[in-house]
Amino acid sequence: MDVHVRGSGAVEPFLAARDLLETEYDLELPVIVKIREDPDERTMAGHYDDRHELLVSRRAATSAMARELALHEFAHMARYEEGHPSHVQSTEEALFLALAGRSVERRKLSQCYQIANHMKDIYADDITLDIGPTGKLVDFMESSLAAALAETPPPAPGEWTHETASADPEITAVNAAFALALLERHGAIEEEHRLYDLADAAAADAPGVSLSRFKQHFRSLVEDPGESEYRKALVEVTREYTLSGGTRAAD
């Protein structure tokens, strides 16, 4: 597995992630890592005929999670090369099937793509949690959910739900379900962990979203699905989300 790091920054996290991946997996195509100044996009991976590319902000490349983030993206590349349905099927096609004949607001549509990415992440992290340490990931998910909850203002009097550009309660609840599902899937979290309390708080902020149902959607994804099986799972979770909390006309 060839990894080439371009830009000003340490190469060690990426080489360490490569070494971890190579204990169980390999990539046929080389990986070009490009470190850039833009801090807004933590990581972004692209796949081409002759290479994979990983764009990483300098902030992410120098963070305590740099190796884990790189390993996560390398795992996505491994899933892509093996032709896993979650990584080669068209997300747009599945969402079209799920939403045909329905009017969905732009906010929820963009969040459906985020949910589809969660499903990809489940399969990528089946690799990372199998070969790498889990402690940092658990701490990262806990801090991320806590931050999202802190950004969500209390509801106005008489209102059940509230929305902000920074922290939408409905997708925050789904994100909590994803975190628990992933960690439970690999036995990486204890029953009394604080993440469960944070997830309950997220669920309370979004009473129209079933934390348990979305957790079951993510946790029960089969390891090696066929194309139609994976498409069906994505269609089901998309339909459930667009119906949660009520629906409104598209923007």
TrEMBL record:
Pfam family membership, one: DUF5781
Superkingdom per UniProt: Archaea
Entry-linked InterPro entries: DUF5781 (IPR043940)
Name of the protein described by the UniProt record: Uncharacterized protein
Species the sequence originates in: Natronomonas moolapensis (strain DSM 18674 / CECT 7526 / JCM 14361 / 8.8.11)
The organism's taxonomic lineage, starting at the top: Archaea, Methanobacteriati, Methanobacteriota, Stenosarchaea group, Halobacteria
